[in-house]
Amino acid sequence: MDRFLELRRLVSPGVALVHPITIMRGENAVLMDSEGRRYIDFTSGIGVVNLGHGNPEIGEAVEKALKNLWHLCFMVANYPGYVEVVEKLVETVPGDFEKRGALFNSGAEAVENAVKIARHVTKRPYAVSFENSFHGRTYLAMALTGKYEPYKVDFEPFPSAVEHVPFPYCYRCPFGQSYPGCGLECMDYVKKHFFKTRVPPHKIACFIIEPIQGEGGFVPAPPEYLRELRSVCDEHGIVFIDDEVQTGFCRTGRFYAIEHSGVAPDLVTVGKALANGLPLSAVAGKASLMDNMPPGSLGSTFGGNPVACAAAVKVFEIMKRDDLAGRAMRLGELIAERLGEFFERFELVGDVRGLGVMRAFELVKDRRSKEPAVKETSMILEHARRRGLLLLKAGLYSNVVRLHPPLTIEEELLNKGLDTVEECLKEVSKQPS
Ligand SMILES: Cc1ncc(COP(=O)(O)O)c(C=O)c1O
């Protein structure tokens, strides 16, 4: 064991570790560990380095920013990077209306602030999120999160006025229906049951939804569901918060995943890939909401750090110039084709899904019962690492293998990684369960 892994004993085990290796360097989609081993990276640091590790153009922008000004606090005085990032955000988030933005440090912080804005403006208490969702680990974000273990265990009491409704997880429909013939019973439930039994709509400040659940196992909400949710929000004056922390920045083949549905959310939360690995997050959306926030009610010491902003400005520039959304679509088709083959060949693969370069497969012991193949999922991750590929799992039952490569990954490397996934599936399929 290397010295750094030994030192990890000093870190609280509350910060979990998926792969027991120490990474020393990264170059685009390749990571090098302390023993000199190389790995193809299908994690992107959990959907963060969409433009690859060590991207030289971003590095140059960061170095320049470091030389000029590395901290000020936006509440002290204005500086270019912050307002330039907000300018790019309001240009790119969907919606044909006047928009505003504000910058923060992490995805959870963006989520908290979006809910703050919704509550402040509507003067209503309730925030409604979805089962199987993930919105972060701070208290409100944790309360919004729709999975108990491991995120919420023994952390009660949670902030009040947070409710959950079923997510349209069609492979495991909570209503036993099958899509698309279901008539969106899950939405009917919200309108006819939830509003009557739990919270009336005039008490709801916001719905917050991931258009594709990330930690929940890359579960896309059907576009019709998102459109229906939009109309429910319109009807009742509820703020529609689109959590794009994991789906944003071209990963799904659009700048923001919600664009696939044509829905314009009221507020969008972003983080992760916004600055390609430097800590930066944001809320952007309707000026009519964000202009209502009193001075001093938003912001933080580090939120919108100049170095992180310089990285983000470069991210926007490269994504547009190199049409990364188009590239994500093309690579996504390639991945989808291979996943389709895996589905045909391996009984273990119960479902394949996703959009763009945000793809996953769900492992089951038996396709009829859909019993989650949890052990097998962990084995795939281990086998893959031994073969030089880093993967992540996800899902309500931790039985989903998610593929999260940088959008800049070379096609040859992507194929090599997918070949490795295939070998692992072959190997694990042979083992008695
Ligand atoms: C959809 C979503 N929202 C919020 C968060 C929280 O982001 P952070 O870990 O930066 O606080 C995550 C993190 O995985 C996420 O996937």
UniProtKB/TrEMBL annotation:
Its cofactor is pyridoxal 5'-phosphate. It comes from the Archaea. Keywords: Aminotransferase, Pyridoxal phosphate, Transferase. Its EC number is 2.6.1.13. It is an enzyme of class 2 (transferase). It catalyses: L-ornithine + 2-oxoglutarate = L-glutamate 5-semialdehyde + L-glutamate. GO terms for molecular function: identical protein binding; ornithine aminotransferase activity; pyridoxal phosphate binding. Belongs to the class-III pyridoxal-phosphate-dependent aminotransferase family. This is Ornithine aminotransferase.
